[in-house]
Task: inverse folding
């Protein structure tokens, strides 16, 4: 488990994280969501040790990561895999060399053992046969998958994923989300995903933390988020008319009521998206 | 104040390079790769510059030594000492500051901007030790070798130009090379080469490693690293001449 206790971070006098307290659950996809500038990227960088918090504690299995010396930190970091927003693949290396790099650095395995492991993880991310390609020859989705393969090659206990869907089409985004979910369950790792993609939130949000202006505004899961009473969260998630309608239809299905001050006439208006068949078609009446 | 802060950060970067390697074999591989990049990658430009600087040196010395009382082999003496004392270490290293320095700053800057350095950090690798130390060590090994090659090629270029244009015969040139040769000059040349090698590799590493922003900032960091390296080389050149000669 990763525990964040009263973490604060500021840059040039501007507070970015203000007393953040969260627990990141093992074996689940923990999503940190929030609008741009809400502090989610800084929080993630504090979690992996790229930024040192001004105060507070980050505990990995009960050990304070922020107070560790360099050697102890290195040991924790060997249990961490991370997929970056831009994949951060080594551009001068092939896919195989990228994925084998952590094995070369930290294991004493034979070349055959390492190649077997590389092929195993590449197969897991559906990249069989891409071993000799360079990052410049890959599509955005393939680069993300190579990044995931590199992140999991050492069997990490923690997987951090920064904006996995940025720059990807919805279909590929869905595949990446699915892959992250499957790997989390299969490897039983604590996955922390930093995103503002609502599809991801609904698909893989086992545990969701909503950040607003450097503070944790809401916490829950992808079922609870629909019925959240937090005005700020609702404004963030249901920013579009389409999603507001989707929410109302879901609430209507589950509770028989719709949210806010809206009414059925507005919801089933001709301009609204066709989320359910119009009443006249359903009933067969004009 | 900013420059003082930068200098402190530079010293901290150097301190950060000294740590136990995570895997000695990987560090050795990176060191050899850098030796190849810096040494073989710069060999052709260093050779061309050296031959021409020796040739020009011969032609210009001959132009200035017009007195019939000064023997012609003096030209070779002047070319030899000028090449060993100044041209081979300083001129070649200023060129290398441009060739190698911009490459180091650009490479590290690009790695920083594309989060490759962050990726290495998260893997548990000391990036200063893995990325910067092999570059500095490789430069300290390879650049003095390039300077020695430059000195030989410079003198050979001077001999070639002198004999080809009829300024002096090959025998006269060889006699001049052996007359009043002081081995201390070679020591001075190598002292300069090691100092400049450190400057050429560490300053661009600093500018590249700490770059912030995007492509434009990488370009700026690269240019700035070359300018600062060249100025540092000139300062060090004077300083070494003042204390060692």
Result:
């Amino acid at each position: 488990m990763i525990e964040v206790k009263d973490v604060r971070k500021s840059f040039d006098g501007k507070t970015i994280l203000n007393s953040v307290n969260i627990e990141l659950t093992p074996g689940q996809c923990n999503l940190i969501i929030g609008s741009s500038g809400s502090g989610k990227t800084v929080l993630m960088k504090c979690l992996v040790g790229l930024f040192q918090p001004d105060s507070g504690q980050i505990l990995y299995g009960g050990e304070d990561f922020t107070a560790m010396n360099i050697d102890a930190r290195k040991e924790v970091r060997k249990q961490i895999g991370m997929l970056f927003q831009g994949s951060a693949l080594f551009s001068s290396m092939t896919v195989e060399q990228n994925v084998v790099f952590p094995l070369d650095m930290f294991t004493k395995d034979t070349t055959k053992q390492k190649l077997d492991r590389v092929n195993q993880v590449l197969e897991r991310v559906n990249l069989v046969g891409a071993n000799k390609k360079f990052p410049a020859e890959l599509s955005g989705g393939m680069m993300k998958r190579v990044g995931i393969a590199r992140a999991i090659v050492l069997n990490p206990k923690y997987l951090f994923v920064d904006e996995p869907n940025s720059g990807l089409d919805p279909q590929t985004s869905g595949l990446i989300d699915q892959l992250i979910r499957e790997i989390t369950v299969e490897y039983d790792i604590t996955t922390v995903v930093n995103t503002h993609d609502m599809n991801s939130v609904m698909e893989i949000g086992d545990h969701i933390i909503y950040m607003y202006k450097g503070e944790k505004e809401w916490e829950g899961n992808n079922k609870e988020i629909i019925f959240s009473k937090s005005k700020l969260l609702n404004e963030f998630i249901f920013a579009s008319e389409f999603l507001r309608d989707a929410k109302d239809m879901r609430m209507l299905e589950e509770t028989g009521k719709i949210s806010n001050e809206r009414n059925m006439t507005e919801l089933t208006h001709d301009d609204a998206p066709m989320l359910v068949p119009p009443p006249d078609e359903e009933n067969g009446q004009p | 104040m900013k420059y003082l802060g930068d200098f402190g950060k530079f010293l901290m970067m150097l301190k950060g390079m000294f740590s136990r390697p995570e895997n000695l074999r990987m560090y050795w591989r990176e060191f050899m790769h850098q030796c190849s990049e810096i040494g073989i990658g710069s060999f052709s430009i260093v050779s061309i510059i050296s031959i021409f600087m020796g040739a020009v040196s011969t032609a210009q010395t001959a132009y200035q030594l017009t007195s019939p009382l000064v023997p012609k082999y003096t030209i070779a003496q002047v070319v030899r000492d000028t090449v060993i004392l100044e041209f081979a270490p300083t001129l070649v290293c200023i060129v290398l500051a441009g060739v190698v320095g911009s490459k180091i700053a650009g490479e590290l800057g690009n790695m920083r901007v594309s989060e490759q350095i962050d990726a290495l950090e998260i893997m548990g690798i000391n990036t200063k030790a893995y990325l910067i130390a092999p570059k500095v060590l490789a430069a300290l090994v390879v650049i003095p070798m390039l300077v020695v090659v430059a000195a030989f090629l410079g003198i050979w270029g001077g001999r070639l130009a002198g004999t080809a244009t009829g300024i002096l015969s090959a025998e006269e040139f060889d006699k001049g090379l052996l007359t009043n040769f002081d081995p201390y000059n070679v020591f001075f040349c190598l002292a300069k080469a090691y100092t400049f090698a450190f400057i050429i590799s560490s300053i661009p590493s600093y500018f590249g490693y700490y770059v912030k922003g995007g492509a434009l900032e990488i370009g700026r960091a690269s240019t700035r690293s070359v300018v600062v390296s060249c100025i540092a080389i000139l300062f060090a050149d004077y300083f070494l001449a003042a204390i060692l000669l």
Summary: Chain B touches chain A at residues 19, 22-23, 26, 110, 114-116, 118-119, 121-126 (CB under 8 Å). The mean pLDDT of chain B is 93.
